[in-house]
Design brief:
With 388 residues, this protein is mainly β. The chain has one domain (2-387). It has 6 helices and 26 strands. It is globular. Mean pLDDT is 88; it is low at 20-26.
Length: 388
């Protein structure tokens, strides 16, 4: 089932850290909707549509966690058509070229024999950039799918010049509200105790004229959910849920006989590390071994990566009702940011189209993280970037 959400409300998306600690100015807030926040909205709506008392039994709580959320993407209506919006890929750096932006793409090269590094493994390829200019400050924080598709197909060569509006849009519009902390015993404000809420609007600004572009979110579920209003994020902010005929982008037919493929994260990766455990190479060994893509006979190995960084996220574990309570806080998880690029080498390049078809629009995560919508990926060509 395919759905979209939109809102004119301001969403509050906290990282799950508690308020009230001394000198705590408030938990961090995010400029996009975390997969687990969206999953919570979806499962809550499905559960209450079944019964007002649905979440009173442990059996129902465990059952609702099996509802799968997948293919989570932002999109906007531009020039009369729906355009998916992607995170910026980590292997692209923009520099200034007059009033425009110059696109610079990293190359993956072998380490020179005389190179000083703490990586012993000689199979690991080093991302490098032949560019002396400083990175530009104003860059697209969300790419249009048309631009991103050209990037995946290696039709945006390094050195190309664009205006920002040609590639994408700036970050989502937000503002910050400062509040007084409350003493829960007296219900009065506490001197010097403040906290901040970052409020996110489902809109982004165009660089050229500063106008706002309304943004919506697309997702798929394994079980039908009710349409209409639903609560999303903190302070019971509402969004409008609708069924949609919009479909996730199709796999390009460009992946035949490729030795290398790029795998790009579209949503945060919840791996317990900087890449999936099954793909993690031993960089202290002399070489990188080929491994099976889970549940397949495809053999690949990770030759390099460009990691965008990490975001910390917590939350509330409602399913763990310890000592008769209403759950407990989740432990902090470090999530790999969207836009991260993993460079895969295939043991059998003749299988590259099948590998791309299997991974396209799937999740690199497993277990509950996969059901929650983490780890969504698409694939791109890498032949022009790899120098071996």
């Amino acid at each position: 089932m395919r759905y979209s959400i939109k809102t004119r409300n301001q969403l509050i998306l906290r990282d799950g850290k508690p308020f009230g600690d001394e000198k705590n100015f408030g938990g961090s807030s995010y400029s996009s909707i975390m997969p687990q926040t969206l999953a919570g909205m979806i499962r809550t709506a499905i559960g209450f549509s079944k019964s007002p008392n649905y979440f009173t039994t442990d059996e129902n709580i465990q059952a609702i966690l099996n509802v799968v959320i997948s293919k989570v993407m932002y999109y906007a209506k531009l020039a009369g058509k729906n355009e998916f919006l992607t995170p910026p890929p980590a292997d692209v750096v923009f520099t200034k070229n007059g009033e425009k932006l110059k696109l610079n793409q990293l190359a993956f090269t072998e380490m020179p024999a005389d190179c000083g590094t703490d990586i012993r493994n000689r199979d690991w390829l080093v991302p490098s950039l032949d560019c002396s200019e400083k990175p530009a400050k104003d860059i697209p924080q969300r790419w249009f799918w048309d631009s991103f598709s050209q990037y995946l197909n290696e039709r945006l060569p390094s050195g190309s010049v664009f205006s920002l509006d040609d590639i994408g849009i700036t970050s989502m519009i937000s503002d910050v509200h400062i509040h007084n902390g409350l003493d829960y015993g007296t219900r009065s404000t506490q001197n010097g105790r403040l906290f901040a809420n970052k409020q996110l609007y489902m809109a982004a600004k165009k660089q050229s004229d500063g106008s706002a572009v309304p943004v919506e979110m697309y997702f798929e579920t394994s079980e039908a959910m009710p349409v209409g209003d639903a609560f999303l994020g903190g302070e019971r902010k509402t969004v409008e849920v609708e069924e949609t005929s919009l479909e996730f982008p199709l796999l390009p037919k460009v992946f035949e006989n490729q030795r290398f493929l790029k795998v790009i994260l579209m949503t945060h990766g919840n791996f317990g590390g900087w890449c999936p455990k099954w793909l993690m190479p031993d960089l202290k060994a002399d070489s990188i071994e080929f491994v099976n893509v889970p549940e397949t006979e495809f053999r690949v190995r990770l030759r390099s990566a460009c990691v965008s960084g990490w975001d910390g996220v917590s939350g509330w574990d409602y399913a763990s009702k310890k000592d008769g309570g209403n759950g407990k806080p989740k432990a902090l998880s470090k999530l790999v940011r969207p836009g991260t690029v993993y460079l895969l080498e295939l043991e059998n390049p003749s299988q590259s189209a099948d590998v791309a078809n299997y991974l396209w629009g799937s999740s690199l995560c497993d277990g509950q993280a996969k059901k929650d919508g983490f780890g969504l990926v698409v694939l791109g060509l890498a032949a022009k970037q790899v120098k071996v």
